[in-house]
Task: structure prediction
Amino acid sequence: MKRMMIPFLAAVLVAGTLFAQQLSTTPTPRDAGWVKRVERDAAQAHKGGWEVVFIGDSITDFWQNRGKAEWEKYFAPFKALNLGISADRTEHVLWRLDNGQLENNQPKLFVVMIGTNNNGHRPADKESTADTVAGIKAILDRLAQKAPDSKVLLHAIFPRGATPQDACRLRNEAVNAEIQKFADNKRIFWMNINDKLLEPDGTLSKAVMPDLLHPNAKGYAIWAEAILPFIQKSVKTSVTPDHRMDQAWWKQRFEQKLALAKQGGWDLVFLGDSITHGWEGAGKQVWAENFGAYKALNLGYGGDRTEHVLWRLQNGELDGYQPKLLILMIGTNNTGHRPAAQETPQDTADGIRAILDLIAQKSPSTQVLLLGIFPRSAKPTDVPRARNSRVNEIIKAYADGARVIYMDLGPQMLEPDGTLAPEMMPDLLHPKEKGYRIWAQAVLPVIKETLGK
Result:
């Protein structure tokens, strides 16, 4: 009889775990008042246009009261939405995501922390580590299904209880050890800031969490400061300086161009991406014929986006000299390398604005000729063309007619019906020599007027 009891008990334990996983992974609503709250939040979510969406329980929810000042201070530059509801468990979040909160809501970034109530509201024999982990995994899967272009910053569950030996703390840490494995550093990113919330001996101070569970204003400030750089990079990528030094050719080009820049004396600078870089390729002869008489420097890098130009300028490419004229065109890789859900035309324009501001700071006497992004793709209705056109509509307002002037050469490169011919741009993106001649002839009058020759 005893031998028969062992498999029977094992079967009961497995059945118990499966039942708990059904609880943690089965979308479940709460009371009527809660459903009304979900409906209100879903209506907000449905408005769309959100850049950052926080998903969680009371710890997230309380950004709206205990952390309100910090939310305004740190997240005001972003269009951020709070989808935290006090006392929620994984199954409640799943129900919310299935009932309106992801309709027309594909932000650039979700910030997710959930699970402390799974451990806090159910004893360990009713919900195991694996059960809570399964619920969190179900939420991540739902986000991947309904918002595939959005990134996810997955948080370790915050510490709770006074000491490291607290039973709920131990259960949360066991969950954290497993869910961090879900991070692929492509769509899902892991962040554990628990050490910032704890004392050196691992105790949790009431000066940070008065009830040893929910942060106060100080705790929310710690949280905000910890995640702000990641949010800035993920959401406002176009205005966050970044480099490509891990690419050998780019690193070599930067070092070569930086050495040239440091020689000083440059009167004319072209700044941009592969289209500007192409003055050293398809446009080489045109450059020699039209700009050979000037002290002109080409700072175009194939594949660069606004954030790369910002990094280059911050790291010396405009130091030690003040060109009389800088010709700037950038942005086609912002719109071409990222889906619309990840970067809007306004985001790209913000990156261009940041470049103009940095030029003004580093070289206030320099006049900037801001070029509209060249047309790309065959037809005006093609998405890449339309996105670039919208950027151009925005950035032309950045010209003040004095320090910054605007010029759009796009119409000169198109056929009468608005199509882009392979004879102008074989890949419908990069000009042939014919395109560079149009470019040179258009900007020469500005160059001669500004440089006085």
